[in-house]
Amino acid sequence: MKKALLALFFATLSNLGIASHIQGGYILLHFDSIHMNQAYYTATTVLMRDQSGASLPQVISLDVSDSSGVTLDTLALTRDNQYMLPSLVTGFSFEVNSYSGTAILDLNKMYLFSYSLCCRPGGFSNVSGSNNFDFYIETWQSTKNTNSSAQLRNLPPLFWRKGTSWQRMVDGLDIDGDSIGYNLIQPHSASNTPIANDPPYSNATYPLGATYDYRGVMAWHDTAGVPALFMLGIRITAFDASGNVTGSVMYDFPMRVENPPPAVGLNPPGLQVNGQAYQGNILRFSTPTPDTIVFSTTSFAADLPILHFGNGMSASAWDTTLTQVGGNKYDLSVAWLPSASDTASVFPALLEYKYDQHFLLSYVYNISFGAYSNIGLADDVAAQITMYPNPTTGVINLEAASSITSSTVYDVTGRVVQQHNFEDISNTQTVDLSGLNGIFFLQLMLEDGGSVTRQIMVR
User: Fold this and answer.
1) Residues β-bridged to residue 397
2) 172 and 236 Cβ atoms separated by less than 8 Å
3) Nearest-CA neighbor of 127 among 170, 171, 169, 184?
4) Does 183 lie in the same domain as 45?
5) What residues have CB less than 8 Å from 153, skipping those under 6 apart?
6) CATH number of the domain within which 433 lies
7) CA distances (Å), origin 417, targets 64, 70, 305, 389, 409
C-alpha cells in the first residue's frame, strides 16, 4: 500500500505525556468512493481522557497493518470536535475528542487500524487484562465489498449502581445490511482480576439485513467501600452472506461503579422521576405525582435525553421519548405497555444523554413501577396496526383498525425530525421517509384518541 494512505500530513509526536489519561475510545471506517482502483474511506477515532489529564494533541496517528499484522503505514487524523462530557457524579467527568481523516486503501484486502498509548493509570485495567494495562483499540476493515464499519447505536453505560442487574440493550447498526455479531469482553479490576457478573457475558450473532438488540445482564459484585472505575469492552463484527468478515470494531470504555442508593428507587444526582397512572402510552409509576422527569441541572439542555427501561432478568427492554411540557419538565411516553398480569416491581433504568453522533452519557439506576389494572385501549389498537416494509428505503405503508390522523417521527435522541397531519383521514396512510437514514420511532395518532409508536429502520 502506498504512502498515499496519508491523506493528511502526519506530525511526529510524543505519546508519553498523554498516555496515562486516555480512558476509552473506538475507531470507525465509512466507505466514500472508489477512484483509480482504490477505495476512499473516512476514518473516525473517538478518544476520552479524564479532566485532570494532559491535553490530547490536534493530530493523532493510527497504525495500519495488513491481515498478517505487518505494519504498512500510519494514518494521520485531525481533531474536528472536542467537548467536556458533564457528569452526574460530582468531580468526575471526561473530555471527548473526535478525530477524522481520509484513508486510501487497495481493493480486495483486509486492513487493521489500531491505536495504542501504552499504559493506563493505576485504578484501571485494560478490557483484556493485558500486562502493563495497555490501552489499545482496533478496527478491522475489508475492502472487498467496500463496506463501512458496523457500529453500536447505544454505547456502554458510564455510571452504574453497584448490585444493579440491568438488561443492557446494545443496538448494533450495519448500513450495508450485513449480519452482526457481538462479543462482550469481561472487565478487570486494577489488579487484573475479572469482575464478577451474573450471569456471565455471552455472544450473539443475528441474521442478515436487519439490526437487533443484544442484551447482557450485568450484576456487579465489587465490595469496595468507595466508588470504583472499571473497563468494559464490546466487539461488534459484521459478516456478509457467505460468512466472510467485512469488518470488526472494538469499543473500549470506562465504567464508574457507584455505591448502591440508601433506598430502592433513589435516583442519581440531578434527576427526579415521579408519576401517577396516565392513560394511553404514558408510563405510570407507583409514586403519586404527575408523570414528569425533572432535571435540576441545566447542562443537558441542548438535547433531550433518552430513557431506557428493562424488566430485570427477562429479555424485554424498550425505548422512550420525552416531550418538554414547560421549563425543565418532560412527559415520559413509551412504546410498551405492561400486560394485565404484570405486578408492581423494581426495574433498572438507563438514562442516556446524546451529545453528538459519537457519544452518549449513561447512568444506570433503579426505579419502582406500579401494576396496571387493565391493558387499556392502546394495547388493543397496537395489535391492529401494520407498518411495512420495515426496514424501508423511503415510503412506509400504514394500516390500522382506526383512522390515522397524524404521524410524528423521532430520532434516537427524542428529537422530532418529521411531523405530518393527514388531510384525508382514513385507516390506510403512507409516510415518506426519504432523506432519512438510521433508526427512528414512528408515532401514529388515531381518530379514537389512541396512539401507537413503533421502531423503524430507514436505509
Assistant:
1) 388, 430
2) yes
3) 184
4) yes
5) 171, 172, 173, 211, 412, 438, 439
6) 2.60.40.1930
7) 38, 46, 15, 20, 6
Residues 137 and 63 in one domain: yes
End residue of a domain, out of 329, 352, 374 = 374
How far apart CA 353 and CA 368 sit, in angstroms, is 22
Please state, as a whole number, how many other Cβ atoms lie within 10 Å of the Cβ of residue 353.
21
Q: Residue type for 175, please?
A: I
Answer whether residue 265 is part of any domain.
no
Q: Residue 383: which domain range?
A: 377-458
Per-residue pLDDT of the chain (459 residues; tens, 9 = 90+): 433 343 332 332 333 334 446 777 899 999 999 999 999 999 999 888 766 666 788 999 999 999 888 899 999 999 998 877 655 555 566 788 899 999 999 999 999 998 876 554 444 433 333 444 455 688 999 999 888 998 876 566 666 655 554 444 455 677 777 777 666 555 554 455 555 443 333 344 444 333 333 333 343 444 444 556 666 667 788 888 787 888 988 887 766 666 654 443 344 433 333 333 233 333 333 222 223 333 333 233 333 444 444 433 232 334 445 555 544 444 444 433 333 334 434 444 555 554 444 454 555 544 444 333 222 333 333 445 778 887 888 899 988 877 898 898 877 556 788 988 998 888 899 999 988 887 777 878 877 666 676 778 788
Same domain, 87 and 219: yes
Q: Name, in order, each residue with C-beta under 8 angstroms of 172's C-beta and a sequence gap of 6 or more.
A: 150, 151, 152, 153, 180, 182, 206, 211, 212, 214, 236
**Residue from 238, 60, 78, 210 nearest 146 by CA:** 238
In a domain, 287, yes or no: yes
> Per the domain annotation, does 70 fall within a domain?
yes
Distance CA 284, CA 147 (A): 44
Same domain, 232 and 298: no
- What are residue 21's phi and psi, to 5 degrees? -110, 0
194: number of Cβ within 10 Å:
12
Q: Are 421 and 406 contacting, i.e. CB atoms less than 8 angstroms apart?
A: yes
Length of the chain: 459
Which residues, 6+ apart, have CB-to-CB distance to 38 below 8 Å?
4, 104, 105, 106, 107
